[in-house]
Fold:
Amino acid sequence: MPLSLDEVRKVARLARLKLSDAELSRFEGQLGRVLEHMADLAALDTAAVPPTAHALGLSNVMRADEPVESGVQEALLANGPEREGPYLKVPKVIE
Amino acid sequence: MSWETVVGLEVHCQLGTRTKLFCPCSTASFGKPANVNICPVCTGQPGVLPVLNRAAVELAFQAGLAFRCRIEPRSVFARKNYFYPDLPKGYQISQYELPFAQGGTLAIAGKEVRLHRIHMEEDAGKLLHAIGSEELPYSLVDFNRAGVPLIEIVSEADMRSPEEAFDYLTNLKAVLQYAGISRCDMEKGELRCDANVSVRRPGEPFGTKVEVKNLNSFRAVRDAIAYEVVRQSRAREAGEAIRQETRQWDAAAERTEPMRSKEEAHDYRYFPEPDLVPLVAEEAWVARLKAALPELPAARRARFVAELGLSDYDSGVVTAERALADYFEEALAAAAPEAGAKQVANWVQSDFLARVKAEKTSPDRAPVRPAMLGEIAKLVASGSISGKAGKDVFAACWETGKKPSDIVAELGLAQVSDEAAVAAWVDEAVKENPQAAADFRGGKPAAAGSLVGAVMRRSRGKANPALVNKLIKEKLAS
Structure:
């Protein structure tokens, strides 16, 4: 297996996913096959190919620095689980 | 053998744009209610796309140019993944493997500090854990700052004392303000600093570094570094290993303490941001930005020495802040040709700066405007009022905001340079102080002092002192 069960657990924890034992072993297999495919690709000689960060042939897509009020602040706040006045309210974060 | 201090600094600086880095929400949120400057992009709603702010990129490039960095021909944005309630998307858009600027230097007293890199990133939101002194049983989230454009300036570990770190920050801020890149108002969170501190025996490789956060002023940076150096060198003396950790500075208690680490905090799983295309720094664009850079502190300091004849020390004081240097130049324009650069620099450094500091204000907000200070310098230099009266006029200007010439008239401060009037006072002073007059004639030049004092009392300080001295000597020589 290219991926250990512990690594699957760690990835799940980082993504805040609570997985059952059955799910853990299912993803161990599925993610392992993804990594095997990556290993196949890694066998290619890409020494002469510049790394690419993006599939589009575009660069420098930019906008002017002009403020626009969204007008949907209320709707955005309504999407949160809880509010207090103009704030979103969340469980206590301990520093 | 003593321990050597090793410091590297990471400075976050808000770029002076009107809108956020990836959406058109306003950045003007200081003093505004929470969550007024938010939109679907900066709150991470599904399906939205970020669009890069051209002005932010241009200010960032200018920062790189001002610090003589290499502007990378191509840079790429990356996602830094972690969960925290101040981060609505679950990732921060930053730059990782390919930042826009690398290398560069910043001069401080006696050395050049090398920069490692500068990258662009968006700010997170703000969390509120207490209202006033009232600790809340929950946390409140304000996304007004989420998405505000920042640059992070990372130095090499080139500083060797808390004072060098303080100097570095002072000069860094001056460059950013001169170049119009940022206002750098620390109270508004526009400039923030983390310090990496370690100790070693001179000549040895670097020791384990500790990152210190929660540094809200340059003084806090200096004090926190000084504290860490003592803490770490004591631990090493006792044979303990230094733990690589993040600590926070408690300014009230004047000590650092370990921060409860964000779990797996350093596993950010960076990857290229698929929603943003690469940023290409075309040569002509960069050249245009470089040409548009205003005069920087070092150049202005050198110009004031070469063209205005200021001493290097005076020039350093008046160019320390762009607002002060601008003030000085405007005041000089109003004072010339009667008062020269040296005299105006003296006014700026003495009365003006003392008052600015005492009132905790800034040169651009001071009630005595540059043209007014220039006029005062001119009145003194031309002999219209005495130096002492000049100080009184300055104080009255500060209080009332009135024109210096009006205050001179109101207070009757105009200096008396009329020979006949001054000679009459001198006659009376000599008559009243025969002993002093005799001592002076008998070869004690210091005796003239009490005669000058007597003339000044009679004239209520308005007699031109140079003329008083001259007439006393003439009278007693005859």
In short: The two ends of chain A are 39 Å apart (CA to CA). Residues 21-42 of chain A form the longest helix (22 residues).
